[in-house]
Amino acid sequence: IPTRFFFLPAPLFTMASGVGVHDDVVQSFEDIKIGHKYKFALYKLTDNLEEIVVDANVEAGDWAAFIQLLPKDDCRYALFDFDYTLADGGKRNKLLFVVWCPDSAKIKKKMLYASSKDAIRKKFQGVGNEVQATDMDELDYDEIFNKISAGGTK
After folding, report:
1. CB pairs under 8 A, 24+ apart, for 2-7?
2. Mean pLDDT, consecutive 10-residue segments, the chain of 154 residues?
3. Which of 7, 102, 125, 138 is most solvent-facing, going by the fewest CB within 10 Å?
4. Around Cβ 2, how many Cβ atoms within 10 Å?
5. Could you give phi then psi for residue 3, rounded to 5 degrees?
6. Which residues, other chains included, contact 107 with Cβ-Cβ below 8 Å and sequence gap of 6+?
7. What's the chain's Rg over C-alpha atoms?
């Protein structure tokens, strides 16, 4: 009995959700991590929900400016170059990956952002800190500082 096999080509650089990551996202990450060209960047899904692209690269700004740019009713991924000073005066700098999915966002978008997170995370090698937030209270500066710095000790 003859058996037929059909192989369908799989798109490169996609994850379980089928969403790809645009090369500009990787370049933005490298510009933040290596060159410190941007203070933070926001990333979003394209309108056709097939690819993660750069929404904004911001050269200067603080935590307050960053959270002001997060949309009230839509999801975003973000990378923030977090500078802080320890209690002993030592300066530190760490990259923070943020997944912003507010409660007011459409359920389909929240599910797609959650299932596509690994696609963008795998592109961000060396980012050890992550925050997933559904409202602004979860992005309180003091809470983020305590999480990243272990209460100002690291």
Report:
1. none
2. 48 58 94 93 93 94 94 96 85 92 94 92 90 93 86 65
3. 7
4. 3
5. -115, 135
6. none
7. 18
